[in-house]
Amino acid sequence: MEHLEIRTSWRNTLKYNKLGGEVSAELSRLQHLTLDGCGMSWEVSRFANLRTLDISRLPEVMEPSRSQLLDMLRQMPLLESLTATSIKRSNDFRDRTSQYTAPIHLQHLVRMKISCGLLDCIFLLNHISFSRDARRITLKLEVPSQQQMDESSVITSVKSLAQTLENKFDGLAEKIVLDYPLRVRMSKDPSLPLSVPFCMVELNFIGAELFSDDRDGPREAFWQSLNLDWLSALSVRDDDLVESQWSIFGNLPHLESLSVFLNESPLLRVLKLDTKSPPSLAFPALKHLKISDWYMYSESGQKSIDQLASCLQLRDSVWLHLESLRLENCFGLTDDREVVLDRLRNVVKDVDSRDEYDEDEDIQSQTYGDV
After folding, report:
1. What pTM did the predictor assign?
2. Which pLDDT value is given to residue 175?
3. Would you give the DSSP letter of residue 152?
4. Contact, 203 vs 221, CB < 8 A?
5. For residue 67, what is the enclosing H or E element?
6. Positive or negative CA dihedral for 134, 181, 57, 155?
7. How is the chain split among helix, strand and coil, in percent rounded to 5?
8. What three-state secondary structure class fits 105?
9. What pLDDT does 70 receive?
10. C-beta of residue 36 within 8 angstroms of C-beta of residue 54
11. How far apart are alpha carbons 160 and 125 in whole angstroms?
């Protein structure tokens, strides 16, 4: 037998479903295994020929621990696709039941989707060695609650996660998409010379602590711990960033393309010329800007479009030229649209405005198709 798929509804039964150890031990020729709502004897599993493994929707008492999962992976040298959305949570970086001193080499792994606790993710990543063939890594991370871990410990953990990603996927953050709820998609740019094969890592954080607006909060700690120097494209969709977070991206030397949904007030404050001596401008490499769903009138009554035009004029005066500007579904342009566009064209030659979404021009759709 090469394919085995078991799907059960354990919630509707009086006892949990489990694949017996004597059965799993006899499946050494298996290449594709799916366990949906059904557990197994994790310690006696022997699947040396397995190519795909999918473990999902298990009751907590049947979930494999991270050490048990690593034990299984060590016995699967040919594994190409791993989905494990049912893993026991742990609140410790270390695992006293694990005897590993060297990483597990998954040289054929192309796709991995893991759902686990933040600390479990760090632990697993530290024990897995990925190959150059890795294409898509999806991590759904549950951030500990304040009762389980204080904010300073969460910040430490988030920094550790960023550093682990840096070590595992060198040069990863060349393109980033921020979605709601705090879904971070980072990828290498396959068009750049000497770039390793395309790889996309998606992080989906679950936990209110990571949405802290404090400057030293977990979100800032994550961005500050990543090497973003080679970030070339950023798309912010359905995610509100405060001014301090925009400042982190504004200081990047190679960010050329920026696509923004809402966020007009904090972004405009960062785009302005600062009062330092000598003065400096944010986003020094910016060439392409797309704004969506902006309100052209701020709370004070001043037009946001006027603030944007002033910022662009100032940038142009110090030779920071914007090559293209896209306005999409921006409110308040109906009456004087052409006047506004003509003013912007005095600074930016390529200006376009439309009242419907065009996904083909979004950084997100250009960068993150199926791989």
Report:
1. 0.82
2. 86
3. H
4. no
5. helix 66-74
6. positive
7. 30, 25, 45
8. strand
9. 92
10. yes
11. 11
